[in-house]
Amino acid sequence: MSGATVRVDVPDDSLFGPENMPYGVFAPPGGEFRAGVRLGDSVLDLPALLDDPVFARPDLNSFLAQGPAARRVVREKLRELAESPLPADAVHAVEAIRMTLPVRIGDYVDFYASIDHATNLGRLFRPDAEPLLPNWRHLPVGYHGRAGTVVVSGTPVVRPCGQHRTDSGTPEFGPSRRLDIEAELGFVVGTASRRGEPVPVDEFADHVFGVALVNDWSARDIQAWEYQPLGPFLGKSFATSLSAWITPLAALTRARVPLPPQVPKPLPYLRGTDDTGLDIALTVTWNGDTVSRPPYSRMYWSPAQMLAHLTANGASIRPGDLYASGTISGPEPGQRGSFIELSWGGTEPVIVGGAERTFLADGDEVTITATAPGTASRPIGLGEVRGTVLAAHEP
Fold it and tell me: Of 154, 151, 337, 143, which is closest to residue 239 (Cα–Cα)?
């Protein structure tokens, strides 16, 4: 490392000030992947700054496994370092680096925690019945996704093929015609739990390290044909995009808000003092046009309740595991976090680039960003999750 130093100047309106400092895994030009944190428009090279081999790995799992106390020490050390000139070799411009998945994901679970989203889909699919199924207000509904197809933001998504029902009622196999997105918030596990021991609601912060934006791409026509009786399968498992940056829970203390009223009162294992929501505002752009602004504060089930339910049967969690909120939607049309809702099942097209659109076409790009109240009386950013649709590999 050279003796030159540089000071990282962060503009007052930056979404990535020292109160944020999200973690990611990056490679500088000509270098190997290693851990870093974002500060303004720069990335701080953690193995270079902290001289700790745990940060020289191509994922954050070993660092996360060290536990909350060790992570607090590192965060405070980085915030102190950010106030002084840093070795120039340990500071890289964001636009000059490559990013990869920040964690090695062993298990991925997707929930269905938005009452507005669940109500909208219930009205679309069961117009003559109660929109919410009988269990929905009693437990956070979820399913196990495919961890091996979680990809980092910016990775192209190939249109999936599968069976879908024709107008005659018989199935055919081919590319999805109703390719959709789901704007979600993901929660990254830091500390493991023991198999057979549930994680109580109030131990959420002991086990979850931080949050990251998620786009859980969905093939609605494939899903509609296959999901009964066992739920999502090929219509979901082809790709889930994850932001390259994980925002620590420590950066979101000002974003905590009460949950909406839960009626009926949840069963005792889903109650606690840490069952709070998060005031996070998402923005969905479709080919550069803003089409939706979903509010996470409207979510019915809290991230702590999701974790408590996920482990209630004794299922264990490990560092790097990911669970997501499910589609985030609000009560207004402009707050819907999926295109099946925005276009109301394809009957009410959305104007994108001056044209009427319902579902995704090849070449379309979707970007999801988000902000939250920060601890320095200014908003912080959760990075972005972005993906472009490529044509299917037809048989």
Answer: 151
Could you give the CA distance from residue 105 to residue 117 in angstroms, rounded to a whole number? Answer: 26
Count Cβ atoms within 10 A of the Cβ of residue 195 and give its class: 0-12 exposed, 13-18 middle, 19 or more buried. exposed
d(CA 307, CA 389): 32
Phi first, then psi: give them for residue 366, nearest 5 degrees. Answer: -120, 130
What is the per-residue pLDDT across 44-68, written as a single tens digit (0 to 9) for each? Answer: 999 999 999 999 999 999 999 999 9
From the list 299, 350, 289, the residue with the least C-alpha distance to 327 is 299
Q: How many CA atoms lie within 13 A of 295 on its CB side?
A: 18
Residue 287, classified by CB atoms within 10 Å of its CB into exposed (0-12), middle (13-18) or buried (19+), is: middle
Closest CA to 109 of 71, 140, 132, 130: 140
Q: Which residues does the annotation mark as catalytic?
A: 117
Summary mean pLDDT of the chain: 97
3-class secondary-structure state, position 345: coil
How high is the pLDDT of residue 2?
Answer: 62
Q: Is the dihedral of CA 252, 323, 213, 120 positive or negative?
A: negative
pTM of the model: 0.97
366: confidence class by pLDDT, cuts 50, 70, 90: very high
Residues in contact with 100: Cβ distance below 8 Å, sequence separation at least 6, in sequence order: 25, 26, 27, 33, 58, 152, 244
Cα–Cα distance for residue pair 140/266, rounded to 1 Å: 10
138-191 residue pLDDT tens: 999 999 999 999 999 999 999 999 999 998 989 999 999 999 999 999 999 999
- Sketch out the chain's domains with CATH numbers: 5-100 (2.30.30.230), 108-390 (3.90.850.10)
How far is Cα 216 from Cα 195, in angstroms, rounded to an integer?
A: 27
pLDDT tier for residue 1 given thresholds of 50, 70 and 90: low
Question: Hey, which bits of 85-207 come out as E strands?
Answer: 86-87, 91-93, 98-100, 108-111, 142-144, 150-152, 157-158, 161-165, 171-175, 179-180, 183-189
State how far the Cα of 25 lies from the Cα of 354, in Å rounded to an integer: 38
Cβ–Cβ under 8 Å, residues 140 and 115: no
**Cβ of 49: how many Cβ atoms within 10 Å?**
21
